[in-house]
Design goal:
- By secondary structure, this protein is of the alpha+beta class.
- It has a single domain (2-53), classed as 2-Layer Sandwich (CRO Repressor).
- 39% of the residues lie in helices and 22% in strands.
- The protein has three helices and three strands.
- It has helices at residues 6-13, 15-22, 26-34, and strands spanning 2-5, 39-43, 49-53.
- It has a three-stranded antiparallel beta sheet.
- Helix 1 packs across helix 2 and helix 2 (15-22) packs across helix 3 (26-34).
- The longest helix has 9 residues, at 26-34.
- The relative contact order is 0.22.
- GO terms for molecular function: DNA binding.
- It holds the Pfam family Cro.
Length: 64
């Protein structure tokens, strides 16, 4: 099981291939990279891919 950043994986195998592997559109991959989201992709032992995002909680500040 290996982990790699979304950006680095796109450099290695291409945006369309990453999108197919994790089940999203190529546009979603592009948007995530352009917004500099911290997404880590896990390449599982069976060859499947899973993606996770690490972000602060709460993700949005609310004024009360």
């Amino acid at each position: 099981m290996n982990q790699i950043s979304l950006h680095d994986l796109v450099i290695q195998i291409g945006q369309a291939a990453v999108a197919r592997a994790i089940g999203v559109s190529p546009a979603a991959i592009h948007k995530a990279i352009m917004r500099n989201r911290k997404i880590t992709v896990t390449i599982n032992d069976d060859g499947s891919y899973t993606a996770h995002e690490l972000r602060p909680f709460p993700s949005q500040k609310t004024d009360t």
